[in-house]
Write a structure and sequence with these properties.
Keywords: Plasmid
Oligomer: single chain
Number of strands: 7
Structural class: alpha/beta
Strand order of the largest sheet: 3-4-5-6-7
Largest sheet: 5 strands, mixed
Number of helices: 11
Distance between the termini: 47 Å
Amino acid sequence: MAKTAEIATGFHGSKLYQQRARLILPILVRQAQAHGPIFYEDLAQEVGMTNPRTLNYPLGCIGDALNDLAETWDTEIPHIQALVKNQQLNMPGPGFDGFLTRHGYTWDNLKERSAIVKQYWARIFAYPYWHDVLHNLGLQQTSTGLTKLIEKAGTYGGKGEGPDHKALKEFVRNNPHLVGLKKGDATGETEHLLPSADRIDVIFDYKKRFHAVEVKPANALVDDILRGLFQCVKYRAVLAARAAYEHDDRKITGCLALGGTLPSQLIPLRNSLQVDVIEGLADQMP
């Protein structure tokens, strides 16, 4: 982190990493307000970067800008770039360790490091002046251009299940390894009824994990896929509430399984809602 910060200085310049830093910071503010970290790969996709590894430079640039602003304001500003995490550990990469140690954090193992990072995330989520940070740096909040589409999605009356949707559900049910589980895991159950009267397309009910899958076929329209993202959020909330009441400490996870691909305009919403999306499943069907 320190080495990167030495290179990635300046925030308002014309270099590519500086331009990207100005694109990324409003996205990270959105994630902070949603109380949700974001994977390197998802952030890179949202800003049109093909190599997530090169995010280190714009993230270092953001850290430099926050340090300068904190000095001007004479107050500490949490380093929001800590919200960017990797797939392996579900945590910021080791490049962030230097920042943590300089601020007095110590740990002896990965479990302790994970606890420290989560505490730091909580500080980022609780920081009340992110909009002031954006304003001071001459930036705007992320676009809310999906408002009309979200309103349209909420008027959906239901059209019944088509053959493509039914076939994809069965395919997902019989292939748990394609939707975030392990090869050889037991098959799932379709049309699982929740206490809210919703039905989850496919559920995998295991001893240590409850995995819910919303399925959308390759011919699904963009507003139907948008609904699927929000359905995943609802399923997670209902399952978590039921588990808390029943003292069920199993891990609750879920995803949106698409026969096709996620429309590009829904990438920011996916990231904000923190929904895992599995794409291209129709191409893998026999």
